[in-house]
Amino acid sequence: YVKVLELSAHSQDEETCMWQVSQALFEYALLHVDVARLGLVVAYASLMQQHNDGIHSLYEVSRRSNDPCLTPVEATAFLGSTSLAGATAVMQRLQVWHDTDSERTLFEKDEFVRSSCAAPVLRNSLLAGVLIFSSPQPDFFKNPLACQAVAEFALLMAVAVSDHELHPPSLLNLRPMPDLTWQRRRIADTY
Q: Residue 142 class from Cβ within 10 Å (0-12 exposed, 13-18 middle, 19+ buried)?
């Protein structure tokens, strides 16, 4: 908490502050949430800009992993109504999914993901984005302390969010996005 507040207080500009805080939080989360080093990906998806009919998707702006065999850091994607991040943004509360919960997947996910927890990044009832933790372990987020950690990291992330990144949740008009594997390949090829 102190590190995040120090970074926020001493950053030269808003973008630098967000980058420094997210990297500090991700590094800390990877060390302390996945102590056994079973594999964990932490990502932050911010709301895309508003169109005439609302905000259509979120975009992964930063991502870190403690396992190199998982999705590469550069592999960003757009997340919409068919993603856990999209559901989290719309409902404005923590969402958890395990592949042991049902026979079919109810949302778009990366191939390695067996459990996920996502928390909205909110300030003053305005939404900036969603913090997503994903694991190849099927029951990783059945531990309430892991979910509490995700919620607390989202609260800390809100400290670094610029005012212009905050939007009323009523502006959400999320759309389905293409398959994540296809998106990641196309984005990596393009950039």
A: middle
What are 152's two structure tokens? 């607390």
The tokens of 122 are what? 């909110």
Query: pLDDT of 109-152, one tens digit each?
Result: 877 888 999 999 999 999 999 999 999 998 899 999 999 999 99
Element (H, E) at 9: helix 2-10
Inter-CA distances, 127 with 38, 50, 79, 86, 88, Å: 31, 13, 15, 12, 11
Angstrom distances, CA of residue 63 to CA of 60, 75, 179: 7, 8, 18
For residues 23-34, one letter each, b for 16 or more C-beta atoms within 10 angstroms of the residue's C-beta and e for the rest, the string is ebbbebbbeebb
| Chain-centre distance for alpha carbon 140 | 16
Q: Which of 189, 190, 187 is nearest to 78 (CA)?
A: 187
Q: Which residues contact 113 (CB under 8 A, 6 or more apart)?
A: 99, 134, 135, 136
Alpha carbon distance 47, 128 (integer Å): 6
What is the spatial distance between Cα 88 and Cα 95, in angstroms, rounded to a whole number? Answer: 6
